[in-house]
Amino acid sequence: MLKLLNKFLSSMGEYILLMGKTLRRPQKGRMFFKLFMREINDLGVNSFGLVLFTSIFVGAVVAIQMYNNFKSSSIPVPPNFIGYATKVVLILEFSPTIISLILAGKVGSYIASSIGTMRVTEQIDALDIMGVNSPNFLILPKIFANILFNPVLIAISIVFGIYGGYLAGVATGNWTQNNYIVGIQMYIPNKFIWYAFFKTVVFAFLIATIPAYFGYNVKGGSLEVGRSSTQAVVWTMVMIIIAELISTQIFLS
């Protein structure tokens, strides 16, 4: 147990030191912008289809579950609340958290494997020899791309999740289109929106930096790159869940 704790603390120290080198002003602004736009495409735009598909079906499932829960309740619940409850659940939990966990698997494995491959092929060593701040050069564009584009993906997820609930009503006939639309127009506190996007930014930072740490510190060959990618995804998901608990306590307590 003590050995595991020492290893965890050592890894945390290495992670903090790596972030210290990463979070600095880029050495060449034009090159940083070029890498940033490439990461926007690789990490964000290429995830659009997956987010869209997942959100529609998650929204449909949430709406159907809300309908079944309200129907079995001993207290009569107006049908308008199906749309309202679907919207609130998607904003508070499902879109920011579930989509971020999915992106942790897709984006996290890509980041860890790409940086890990550069490490084992000695490309990072070559950057260091040339005097380039390799963590800043490789990781900072990924952080900025994730932090700026992930909220866009979550906003899209919320919209299409709500639309998925609408389609579920059309398909099943369990609630009317008018009732659902009235429900999604009902007021929700602004802090719910702030809460959703605050934790989205936190999750985006974790998704970019934890896999980058594992990829940057790979030792060995291609087999170790695969193992590092797996560890990166697992630890990113664990930290997202922990961050979810902390942010919920801060905002909604």
Q: What would you say this structure looks like, in words?
A:
By secondary structure, the protein is mainly alpha-helical. The model has no long low-confidence stretch (mean pLDDT about 90).
Distance between the termini: 33 Å
In angstroms, what is the radius of gyration? 21 Å
Q: What's the number of helices?
A: 9
Structural class: mainly alpha
Low-confidence stretches: none
Q: Which range best describes the helical content: under 10%, 10-25%, 25-40%, 40-55%, 55-70% or over 70%?
A: over 70%
User: Could you tell me the mean pLDDT?
Assistant: 90
Question: Tags for this entry?
Answer:
9 helices, 253 residues, 0% strand
Summarize, please:
85% of the residues lie in helices and 0% in strands.
Please specify the SSE layout and strand pairing:
Layout: H1 2-22, H2 29-44, H3 48-72, H4 80-120, H5 123-129, H6 134-172, H7 177-184, H8 190-216, H9 222-252
Helix pairs in contact: 1-6, 2-6, 3-4, 3-6, 4-6, 4-7, 4-8, 4-9, 6-7, 6-8, 8-9
